[in-house]
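hey m, so remember when u said the tokens were messed up on ur end? i reran from scratch. heres the input so u can diff it against urs
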Amino acid sequence: MMPPMSLTPQRLAELLPRVIELARAAGREILRVYDSEFAVTLKDDRSPLTEADLASQRVIAAGLRRLAPEIPLLAEESAADDVAQRRSWPTLWLVDPLDGTREFVKRNGEFTVNIALVREHQPLLGVLYAPVPDLCYYAIRGAGAGRLDGQGRREPLHVSATCHEPPRVLASRSHRGKGIDAVLRRLGAHEIVSVGSALKFARLAEGGADFYPRLSPTSEWDTAAGQVIVEAAGGRVTDLHGAPLRYNERDTLVNPDFIAWADAQRDWRALCAPSTAA
């Protein structure tokens, strides 16, 4: 492995547009399959896999090797050897080449390409690209978050500083989880915003929702990019004890249950305390 890259603010700023272009290139491969009659197979965990997942992975893996050959890649479709070695990597790319494969199969457009750069267990740079609306969400820790549309227009992202009334709660289309109903009963009046994939983080970061409780399994590549985007836009993403999600420091790649929120004046964590979340 080559010597580690110095990830200065300037270097991160240089990397970001190139990672965005890489995510868009992967998105073009995804849309090529999306517009065809594609086959769906099931992995060992019964989650779906398509040629779009694999084509996107190939594009991203090759592009990141060219961009930063000294930084290893850990992705949903990574080889078992990479997963076994990853605990020794202080810096790595965390990638989901097609987040929301179930939404892809349903052809509802709610899927993303997720690319995050992680150092010392926290995401420093994140890109979420949604190929169907051709929207890219991005952030560098400490440097703000933004959104780029297909016409090249950019605008900064900010979470909603004041909670909507009733609160807008993000829920997954395919992975709602039993514990969410208890949380919503405690919350009282609310509006559900149903969105697939990591687009839930994007909705929170752009001010379209207030609260995202996730009490069902996710993997680290599902959340790393979205976390840094939400945090750079002024929100929070923590486990149920209030600690920010951390990456590549445990034996498992499955995240703990977590919540994400915008308005810091509300005690969102009290709604999802471990003793009441079941």
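this time it looks ok to me. The helical segments are 9-34, 51-67, 80-85, 101-106, 179-187, 199-205, 220-232, 268-271. if urs says something different then somethings off w ur setup not the seq
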